[in-house]
Amino acid sequence: MSIPQTSSDSYQVQLDEKTERLQAMFSDYEMPSLEVFPSQEQHYRMRAEFRVWHEGDDLYYIMFNQETREKYRVDQFPVASRIINDLMPLLIEAVKDKPVLRHKLFQVDFLSTLSGEVLISLLYHKKLDDEWIALAKELKQTLNDEGFNLNLIGRARKMKIVLDQEYVIEKLNVFDRTYTYQQIENSFTHQMVRLQRRCLSGRSIVLESLRVTFLSSTVVTVTSLLR
C-alpha cells in the first residue's frame, strides 16, 4: 500500500471543510468574515520522519495509518519539502547495499530549511562503531557531492554521533526584519515555516497597530494635561 498523492481538488475540499467548521463554531457570535490564507498544496512541511522496513534485500520507508495502524510504503511524501523528497530515494539506495549502514536501521528523520539546509538522523537498534562512522562520513560526502547541503546524525540507545553539526539555520524575512532560528535536531520546530512567516507578519502588524494606538493615547493624555 502506498501513500495517496495530494491533489489540488482534495486540498481545496479539506480547506473548505475546515473553514465551514470554524464558521459553525462562531456562528452564535457577531464575527467579521473569516479571512483564509491557504498554504501550499504540496511541499509545505519542512520535517518528516519515517520508519524503515526491511524485506529481504529490499529496504524502504513506511508510515502507519492512524486509524487502522496498518503500515504502508512511502517512496515519496508530497507534503514534505522538495528537498526531502529529492533525498528520500537517494538515501535509501545509498544505504541499501551497505550492511553496516542498513543493519538494524529502523527510522530516518529529515529536517530541512527554506534555504536548502538538511539534517538527516539515522536511528538504530544497535551500537554504532568506528566502521559505521567511516561509512556514514562517506554517505554524507556522497550526498553533498550531489549538490545537497546536509549534515548527518547517528542515534542508538545512549548514543549520538554528529557529523558535523546537530542543527540547521532557518531565516524568515518579515517586512524589513530577518528572524533567524537555530533548529536543533530532535527538538520542536515549526514544520510549516511559510505559515509561521505569515503568523509573524500578522504579529508585526498587530504590534505596530498597538504601538500607534499607544502613542496616540499618550499624545491625547499629554495634551489633556497641558490644558
TrEMBL record:
Stretches that traverse the bilayer: none
* UniProt GO molecular function: rRNA binding; tRNA (uracil(54)-C5)-methyltransferase activity, S-adenosyl methionine-dependent; tRNA binding
- List the catalytic activities from the record: uridine(341) in tmRNA + S-adenosyl-L-methionine = 5-methyluridine(341) in tmRNA + S-adenosyl-L-homocysteine + H(+); uridine(54) in tRNA + S-adenosyl-L-methionine = 5-methyluridine(54) in tRNA + S-adenosyl-L-homocysteine + H(+)
Q: Which UniProt keywords apply?
A: Methyltransferase, S-adenosyl-L-methionine, Transferase, tRNA processing
InterPro entries given in the database record: SAM-dependent_MTases_sf (IPR029063), TrmA_MeTrfase (IPR011869), U5_MeTrfase_fam (IPR010280)
- Name the EC number(s): 2.1.1.35
Q: One cellular component GO annotation, for this chain's record?
A: cytosol
Q: Which SUPFAM superfamilies match?
A: S-adenosyl-L-methionine-dependent methyltransferases (SSF53335)
Q: Which GO terms describe its biological process?
A: methylation; tRNA processing
Q: Does the keyword Phosphoprotein apply?
A: no
Spell out the family assignment given in the record's similarity comment.
Answer: Belongs to the class I-like SAM-binding methyltransferase superfamily. RNA M5U methyltransferase family.
Listed name of the protein: tRNA (Uracil54-C5-)-methyltransferase
| Organism per entry | Vibrio ishigakensis
